[in-house]
Amino acid sequence: MSEWRFHPLALLRAAVRAIDPLLLLTLAGLLGYSYVLMMSASPERLDNLRMHFAVALSAMWLVAMVPPRRLLSFALPLYLAGVLLLIGVVTAGEVSKGARRWLNLGFIRIQPSELMKIAVPLTLAWYFQLREDAIRMREFAVAGVLLALPLGLIVVQPDLGTSVLVAAAGVYVMFFAGFSWKLIVPVALAGLLGVGAIVGFGDHLCQPGFDWQVLHEYQKQRVCTLLDPTQDPLGKGFHIIQSTIAIGSGGLYGKGWMDGTQTHLSFIPERHTDFIFSVLAEEFGLVGALVLIAGYIVLLLRGFVIAARAPTLGGRLLAGAVTMIIFTYAFVNMGMVSGILPVVGVPLPFISYGGTALVTLCVGVGMLMSIERSRVAAKE
Amino acid sequence: MEIPLSRAYEPLRRFFAEFPYETNPGAIITCIHETSGIGKPVHAREFRRPDERISALRRRVVVAALFVLLCFGVLGARFYYLQVARYDYFHARAEGNRIAVLPVVPNRGTIYDRKGVLLARNYSSFTLEINPSRVDNLEATIDALAQVIKVDERDRKRFRRLLQDSKYFESVPLRTHLSDTEVARVVARGFRFPGVEVRARLFRDYPMGESAAHVVGYIGRINERDLQRIDEREETAKYRGTEYIGKSGLELSYESRLHGTTGIEQVEINAGGRAVRLMSRVPATPGYDLELSLDIGLQKAAEAALGERRGAVVAIEPETGGVLALASTPAFDPNLFVDGISVADWRALSDSPDHPLLNRAIYSTYPPGSTFKPFMALAGLESGKRDLTQQFGNQGVFTIFGLRFLDRKSRCQSQVDLHRSLVYSCNTYYYQLAHDLGIDTIARFMEPFGFGRRTGIDVPGEAGGVLPSPQWKRERFSRKEHQQWFGGETLSVGIGQGYNAYTPLQMANALATVLNGGAVFRPHVVKHVVNTQSGAREVIEPQPVARIPVREAHLKAVRQAMVDVAKIGTAARVFADARYEAGGKTGTAQVYSLRGQRYVEGQVTERLRDHSWFIGFAPAHDPKIAIAVVVENGGFGSQSAAPVARLVMDYYLLGKPIKGAATEGDEAAAAELEQ
After folding, report:
1. Using the beta-carbon criterion (under 8 Å), do A308 and B83 form an inter-chain contact?
2. Do B204 and B244 meet the contact criterion of CB atoms below 8 Å apart?
3. Where, residue-wise, is CATH 3.90.1310.10 in chain B?
4. Cα–Cα distance measured from residue B33 to residue A10, given in angstroms and rounded to the nearest whole number
5. Does B74 lie at the interface with A, CB-CB under 8 angstroms?
6. Torsion of CA B123, B129, B133, B135, to 10 degrees
7. CB contact under 8 A, B60 and A290
8. ipTM surpasses 0.85
9. Closest residue in chain B to residue A308, using alpha carbons only
């Protein structure tokens, strides 16, 4: 291969070209917002936060430089490793907070369900690309099985937040792959009816002794606390009551940075992680909340554009699913903090403190960049 | 500048191959036409896009985008509702007159001994606290306060330390234990100091000081690690408002029962953050009290008998498995820890070569020396390798593997039976016995007695020790050449040396099992957990956890031999004038091997002197107390440990007060008896 020549700066050039400026800019804005909020909510964690940023952005950059074709080729190995680790968690995991989520490998403690948030959409996208010419019911059935296996293992841990995200990731890929509307509409209706029933008959269902069969006691607690937060004012209901007060008392323009009384008088629990949005809404008001939502919308629309224009089916499905997963994080978190969804332990994307989730999300953004880059490369 | 593609870059180039960093522009196209991820050719299908499929997907993308916008719209509406429509309501709740849900911290349970003497109690006292979030210049405020009441350098130092450890925006105490006049002075000038308040708080106090410090333990301020643990146990609600948590000893192991249940108070609060009116109140349920089986008088007697020396005494009531005394010297004052120990105090404790923080009674392990022999004798009898009449004439020499083991004691150089071997502690008898039994039989027999295994006592921080066996050695050592078991090692196990390592607690509990006819208790310091409101008492571990099948005749023979140890044997001098009949066994744990040289004490530095052991019981025919004593570097068993045991038994059975540390016996006399 003597005709191949190599430019020493080529790798660097590839690195620069891999970046999508709009995505990077939006991301930088969100991370900056996170930093500003953390200065108020939990200043002792700023050093760690900067480290998380560095690691997550590097991961994003690296993924962005890998062509989607190559990313998809990692799907199956990642998926199989993830399922094996999940089986390990179920049989030999460490129990924390009444759930078995962590696996201690001796030198490192890992939470394999986090890996599945990436591995599941990747695998389904890879599978549909493989069967591109003949996607029929059988293919959706196989995809359903591919999704159900890790999902089942995460549900039994139990980890409601991650289950929701992994399930959503799989469903999104299937949706973009063309899953029939005739099947989507009834399922969505049934879901709505179920939620309606729980809200309607909440008083009866939340009686102490009433066994819900499918959900764990702590999940039942969370749903019931959502319906009537006053039931448990010092414990679980405390989160919702106090975060709602924080948001509401922020008003239109907020109380000002570092001046949130709810935040600083320690009324808000987990104010640096899952409940950081209430800090934002208290100190920056409705305006601050809408700025955040605007940031998400820019990011997500860019994701959708990338999905619509991607040159391969796998790229389209992956981009669409990643975008929707980021959306799900944001919606579920803000919904739970403002009291319209149950508390399920999902962080606010790019804003909450937490290295693992940030890396996962930034890897997702890196995938979007990689897919966009592959389109440009195909054109050239 | 161009250089030929180096081999090192080849894998990298392939990995990122889709991008046009190659100088050969044709390569891009080749890459896209390459294989798909699973090795199947793609046939360049991307250049024949099936338009209808793409537009279907694009429609779905548009649907998804609309869905996203709709959901964000719902959120926006919710925020508008909370932040604009109902702003006044929430603003009022957060800022103005609002109802605060305040935790009512329960009183922590107290701890008292079997006779009702308080070992850990609460008392109320006023503290001067500063809420740093409401004070602009902390130093200036403190200086101003120092004009009003006494604030010394120690208070300032502690304040700064607590400030660092504290959760943000909670009050931090500057001065504790204010006198009434000081309270009045501060309160009268309160308006000058926003963010400064005087509060009545409950404090924990350990009136016994160093006595039983390792057992009772101490509480301390909740730190980041404790918070994590509370969070993991989902007890956040229970600990809301609580500042202290058990850190060691019973305060730690019984934390959940001592703490109690937090109550809830709803109060109306004005803009200044002061409670104006009480709306409703669910009172706190105080924590449960602990009534110990421990006798603090006996505990103090044991500590006094040990004196300045390093050592441990464990006394157990054989009938119940209740721990009567669990002494470890030197000790520390738990009161130092409650509000955060000062750096100087901490240094003094942690740097001391005597390790006062170490609970020697349950964490230090020592080879048991000859105190292991009663159990070896029992193993011989139970296995049928020995009977009570068998005699061995070994002339004080035991030869095996071409090695000669000598026993210089004249009393061991004639015909020795099992009884005589215990009374005079004849090593050669036990070399032969250990050889006849074999290491596997020994380990199998000893294991149920609790040797080399945590007893499960309710004081945290127990060590397991080592019951040596070939299997243990294989697991303990990683290198093949270290894993092999040697016959000679069996012999040293037989006389309680070698790899054997047990805690004083294990020795006392194993002895109690022998006295109980084989019933094994899980030793416990707490006798009852008392619900102070209902008066209900939960009894801790009243039943034996296991029963070892041993023949009563064999137990009796061993017990009788131990009684004769105190009458005519190695401990006879120590128990010469006792007004009760006692039984026991002395032991000497080698600190390091002298390799056949004669043990001459003067030649060994103090720290390398042997550890002195004694296990014993009294009264002989209805034992009320089983005891194990270790005196580190105390020399022979009859020299240091046995006199300590004698004093402790005198106190327990006769009520004889202890005037000072037990006097060490004459070394030469002890050497003649035991060596």
Report:
1. no
2. yes
3. 101-212+260-292
4. 22
5. yes
6. 170
7. no
8. yes
9. B58
Rg over CA atoms, chain B = 36
Q: What CATH superfamily is the domain B101-212+260-292?
A: Penicillin-binding protein 2a (Domain 2) (3.90.1310.10)
CB of A127 within 8 A of CB of A143? yes
A33: phi then psi, degrees, rounded to nearest 5: -60, -45
Q: Please provide residue A126's backbone torsions phi and psi, each rounded to the nearest 5 degrees.
A: -60, -45
Q: DSSP H helical segments within A99-158, as ranges?
A: 112-130, 137-155
pLDDT digits (tens, 9 = 90+) for B183-215: 888 888 776 777 788 888 888 999 999 999 999
pLDDT tens digits, B55-93: 888 889 999 999 999 999 999 999 999 988 888 888 877
Instruction: Give percent of chain B with pLDDT exceeding 70.
Output: 83
Residue B152 at interface with chain A, using a CB cutoff of 8 Å? no
**What pTM did the predictor assign?**
0.62
Cβ distance of A301 and B76 shorter than 8 Å: no
With an 8 Å Cβ cutoff, is B20 touching chain A? yes
| Cβ–Cβ pairs < 8 A, chains A and B | 222
Q: What residues pair up with B101 in beta bridges, in sequence order? A: B266
Q: Quick check: B83 and A290 CB within 8 A?
A: no
Asked if A316 has any chain B CB less than 8 Å from its own CB, the reply is yes
The verdict on a CB contact (< 8 Å) between A251 and B37 is no
Q: Which positions 36-55 of A are in contact with B (Cβ < 8 Å)?
A: none
Subunit contact B19:A246, Cβ cutoff 8 A: no
Stretches in chain A below the pLDDT threshold 50: 1-4
Ranges of CATH 3.40.710.10 domains, chain B? 296-344+360-674
Contact B3 A8 (CB under 8 A): yes
d(CA B155, CA A86): 52
Residue A111, chain B, CB below 8 Å: the answer is no
Closest partner residue to B82 among A98, A233, A247, by Cβ? A247
Q: What is the DSSP string of B460-503?
A: S-----B---HHHHHHH--SHHHH---HHHHHHHHTT-TT-BB-
CA nearest B55 in A: which residue? A308
Which residues 119-158 of A have a C-beta within 8 angstroms of B? 126, 129-130, 132
Closest CA to A166 of A73, A41, A82: A82
Between CA A143 and CA A153, with CA A148 as vertex, the angle to 5 degrees is: 145
Which residues pair with residue B616 across a beta bridge? B584, B627
The Cβ-side half-sphere exposure at B131, using a 13 Å CA radius, reads 16
State the smallest CA–CA distance between residue B200 and chain A in angstroms: 21
Q: Which CATH superfamily is domain B296-344+360-674 in?
A: DD-peptidase/beta-lactamase superfamily (3.40.710.10)
Q: How far is B196 from chain A (nearest CA, A)?
A: 16
Distance from C-alpha of A161 to C-alpha of B652, rounded to nearest angstrom:
61
- SS3 of B508-523: HHHHHHHHCCCEECCC
Contact (CB<8Å) A234/B262: yes
**B638 catalytic residue (yes or no):** no
Q: Note the pLDDT of residue A232.
A: 61
- Using CB atoms, which residue from A96, A281, A316 is nearest to B57? A316
Q: Which of B372, B670, B664, B385 is nearest to B499 (CA)?
A: B372
Burial B390-403 (b: 16+ CB within 10 A, else e): eebebebebeeeee
The catalytic position among B370, B469, B492, B638 is B370
**For residue A25, what are the contacts with CB-CB under 8 A and spacing of at least 6?**
none
Q: Indicate the pLDDT class of residue B14, thresholds 50, 70 and 90.
A: low
| A11 reaches B (C-beta below 8 A) | yes
User: To the nearest 10°, the Cα dihedral for B521, B526, B529, B530?
Assistant: 130
